[in-house]
Each structure stands twice: as structure tokens, then as C-alpha cells.
Amino acid sequence: MEKTLVIIKPDAIRRGLIGRIISRFEDKDFIIKRIESRTKSITWCKLMYPHLIEMATFNKLSTFMTANPLIGIELEGYNIVKVIRKMLGCTNSMDADPGTIRGDFGLWPIRYNCVHASDSIENAGRELELFFND
């Protein structure tokens, strides 16, 4: 069994999509190990997205991710990282297939794509620690 982190972003929370997103993971029979709402800092964003710090859009991303609470979900299941990434669809919501979370709910190419999910087992461990153990 693998574990991964999914973060429901402020755009999805504001639009009342929490239950609809979580139900997709429950329908897939993944186990919710933890779920918490937390407000994060710019420092957290830098640790969470170190590969984006030098990009021009990082300030907008960090402002977006820290302005309101996020919902972090620790999920467990077989091959979960790969399956969750497929369920989410492309990071750019405009390219995400219908039927994926981002394809169905995403409104903007990157920032307003409703959810974040770990991209590897290694990153899942790091990101779970970052989200739940400030």
C-alpha cells in the first residue's frame, strides 16, 4: 500500500467542490488516513514548490495558496500515486480530459486547477510531512 498527499486548493473550496472531489477518491476505494484544514505560509510554499521559486508566477501561486485555508488529505491505496495523478488529469486544466478532476472542475491553466497531488512516492513522504507536521 502506498500513501500520497492531495491538497484541495482554495478555488475548489470557494466553489463548494470539497465533497465532490473527495467522493471520487472514496469511489475508487482509497482509504482516507487523515484530512485537515490548514492555513500555510510563504515559507511553506517555498518548501513545497522549490522547483517553482525562480518562476515569475511563484509570487501569485504563493499568494493564492496562503490567502485561505487548504484541505490536505492523506490517502492510502494500491499504486495510489499513479492512479491519483491519472484521476486529476493534466496540471493545465485547459488540457485536462473531461472526466478528470481538473478537466471537470479546473478553471485556469495552472493556479486554479482545484487540486495538488504528489508526483512520486518519495515526494509524497516529503509533502505529507510538510503539510501535516508544520
> Main beta sheet: strand number and arrangement?
4 strands, antiparallel
How far from one another are the termini?
25 Å
Task: Report the structural category.
Answer: alpha+beta
Uncertain segments are none
> The CATH topology, please?
Alpha-Beta Plaits
Q: Count the E strands.
A: 4
Biggest β-sheet: strands ordered side by side in the sheet = 2-3-1-4
Number of helices: 7
How big a fraction of the residues is strand? 15-25%
In oligomeric terms, what are we looking at? single chain
What's the CATH H-level superfamily name? Nucleoside diphosphate kinase-like domain
Using the coordinates above, name the CATH class: Alpha Beta
At CATH's second level, what is the architecture?
2-Layer Sandwich
Averaged pLDDT: 95
Written as H for each helix and E for each strand, in order along the chain, the element string is EHHEHHEHHEH
The radius of gyration computed from the alpha-carbon positions, rounded to a whole number of angstroms, is 14 Å
The portion of residues assigned to helices is: 40-55%
What general outline do the C-alpha atoms trace? globular
* Number of structurally distinct domains: 1
Q: What does this 3D model show about the protein?
A:
The protein has a single domain, classed as Nucleoside diphosphate kinase-like domain (Alpha-Beta Plaits). The longest helix has 12 residues, at 121-132. The chain has helices spanning 10-14, 18-27, 42-48, 58-67, 80-88, 101-105, 121-132, and strands at residues 2-8, 31-38, 70-77, 115-117. It is of the alpha+beta class. The protein is globular and about 35 Å long. The two termini are 25 Å apart. The chain has a four-stranded antiparallel sheet, with helices on both faces.
